Amino acid sequence: MSELSHRIRIRRDELGLSQEELAIRMGYRSKSSITKLEKGVNDIPQAKLEELAAALHTTPAWLLGLDVPTPPPGFEPLPEMVRVPLVGSIACGTPITAEQNIESYIGVPAAWHADFALTCHGNSMAPTICDGDIVCIRSQPEVEQGEIAAVRIGEEATLKHFHRQGDAVMLLADNTSVCSPMIFTGPQLEEIRIEGKAVGFCRGL
Asked: CA 188 to CA 179: how far, in whole Å?
């Protein structure tokens, strides 16, 4: 799908117009012409582009995606950001109770697809993740072998590398000098639940 076809559909949806209604505004006999435009099947001449922009109450430049300013050389554009709730704390050493009250909202890159954030305490994951870092979590019930996960153990939670070997689960720290491997087997496994995968962190906020 081209930028033009994508923006036609987005703008039509914003105005609450059906394809039939937009076709009528454009003087087309049926909605098929609009359908083809939104699928990127048909090109549109410049004269019709201006007419289409007027029908959608916008400009040809916006429809073509030419409204985005070009940053100066050496500058990086700010990524799209979203706000996620900061919900209490999570241990990076001995597990501590994870409070579920929302403390505040923070801005994080949308590309992380994070659902919430937690403040870490302890240095068991240092130097990767340090005491005071805010870790963003994507809610999911499983993670890949070795990925960093927020894991609930009963009423407590911790942040560790998750490993499953046969009928055992191991939670491993990066800093093994302050935290030994946590191993769970048999009935202990019923106490464990993965809250989500760590997808990014913020330091010094």
From this structure: 19
* Residue the block writes with tokens 């490993």: 163
pLDDT grade, residue 94 (50/70/90)?
Answer: low
Predicted TM-score (pTM) of the model is 0.61
pLDDT score of 86 more than 80:
yes
Residue 22 token pair: 């937009």
Structure tokens at 112: 């992380």
Structural tokens at position 95: 């597990």
Cis peptide bond prior to 127, omega within 30° of 0: yes
pLDDT value at 84 more than 70: yes
Give the confidence band of 69 by pLDDT, cuts at 50, 70, 90.
low
Contacts of 34 (CB under 8 A, 6+ apart): 8, 12, 19, 22, 23, 26, 28
Backbone angles phi, psi at 54, to 5 degrees: -65, -40
Exposure letters 156-167 (e unless 16+ CB within 10 A, then b): ebbbbbbeeeee
Catalytic residues: 124, 160
